[in-house]
Amino acid sequence: MKYLRQIMSLLVIAVALLSFTPTAWAFCGFYVAKADANLYNKASQVIIARDENNTVLTMANDFQGQVKDFAMVVPVPTVIKKEQVKVAQPQIIEKIDAFSAPRLVEYFDSDPCAPAFQDRMMNAPQSAAESGMIAKKTGRARDSLGVTIEAQFNVGEYDILILSAKESGGLETWLRRNGYKLPRGAKELLKPYIRSSMKFFVAKVNLDKFDKSGYQRLRPLQISYQSPKFMLPIRLGMMNSTSEQDLIVYILSPKGQAEITNYRTVKISSNVNIPIFVKNEFGDFYKSMFQNSYTKEDKKVAFLEYAWDMGSCDPCSAEPLNSEELKQAGVFWLDNNANNNIPQFRRPFPTSSVFITRLHVRYTRNKFPEDLIFQTTSNQQSFQGRYVLQHPFTGKLECSAGKQYKRSLPQRFEQEAQTLAKLTNWKIQDIREKMRLSVGNLTISWWDKFLGWWGF
């Protein structure tokens, strides 16, 4: 993982000399690491840009294997036409992932013996508080098994069919006969979508066009449509595996936070101080913390990892997306010029408002038997998964405030250790030992006294 450093604005912190809270001495905050989608094997990523009944869905392809074997089957609420499908650049998903990823920040305690600039005091930093077409004609072919080809076209390196079906067994048989590899159990998973009259967006790779394109990997597909249904089908994704799967959804809205209505949405633990050694283990820390939280919630909630206006960030783990990048991500309400790929999406007044919600779902068949149903809200409260490293001051401390500061540190370090153990379920003795080793480069003579407080 690349550790980017981006300097925040200088903060002058109000110091309560008798309390010595973990953030009381903090200033000069730095973003040092992020927990992006690369932490998880085969994590699916989806961007949903949604306003009223208009949706633009961008799906990252994490397919691993020979391109000739790739096939995507996505239930959609309506027949999709060629002008409603485009190929997006992978970088746009990578940028949104980087911008919204949970982050590690560090602060350095100021000198408690320095003059207190009362007139410039401010509150402590607040917590940041996703081979060719099979059939030659549209319509029913002989022996169609109840499957109708509603549309067929090519977009970029993809050959695409829009199918409807009368029953799941017929659709499964049709797909197999036409070269689509489906795992066992597909019939039962297809059935509820057919019952609700949904269509099926089916994509395969045109090998000739892919070879000529020069791309090394499959690009994301982006679909636009109008429907009152604000949902994301996840059950078909379970056909390929019975193990836990990670899904990260980035919802872009002109209104505010989005949430899942048929499962609980909870905030990931955030804005806590953890030991300094985690700087070199942030990926392991976040994965352990997420798994621990997931288990405690009985494995059937969605976690809110980020909610923020796309125009700003604090601290920034990546630059906010500019207007052109937001349009690439599917945002169609930035101006009065309707995107040619998004018919009838014109808004009466222009707006630059884009609010991002990052939801992380880890799901299995038994814990998430339903597709995800979303709603947007007017809540624009900012939130981020944010974890703080608080470096102690290492200079001379000869004043009374400095001596009191030194006496406060053992309790603070122990609190950090206890917090880390609670978040990750790591053993407290292992954490204390790592904390002891992590201060080996400190030369202040009184450090051993702090370690003695733990019995080292």
Write a concise keyword list for the protein shown above.
456 residues; alpha+beta; 9-stranded mixed β-sheet; 5-stranded mixed β-sheet; 21 strands; elongated; disordered N terminus
Please explain how this structure is put together.
By secondary structure, the protein is an alpha+beta fold. The protein has a domain at 6-62 and 86-130 and 224-393. It has nine helices and 21 strands. Strands 3, 4, 6, 11, 13, 15, 17, 18 and 20 form a nine-stranded mixed β-sheet that branches. Strands 1-2-7-21-16 form a five-stranded mixed β-sheet. A hairpin with a 2-residue loop joins β8 (147-155) and β9. α7 crosses α8. It is elongated. It starts with 5 loop residues before the first strand and ends with a helix. Mean pLDDT is 79; it is low at 1-28, 117-142, 336-352 and 441-447.
Describe the structure concisely:
With 456 residues, the protein is of the alpha+beta class. The protein contains nine helices and 21 strands.
> From the alpha-carbon coordinates, what is the Rg to the nearest angstrom?
26 Å
Classify the secondary structure makeup into a structural class: alpha+beta
Query: What's the overall geometry?
Result: elongated
Helix residue percentage:
10-25%
Order of helices and strands: EEEEEEHEEEHHEHEEEEEEHEHEEEEHHH
Low-confidence stretches: 1-28, 117-142, 336-352, 441-447
Please work out how many helical segments DSSP would assign.
9
Overall mean pLDDT? 79
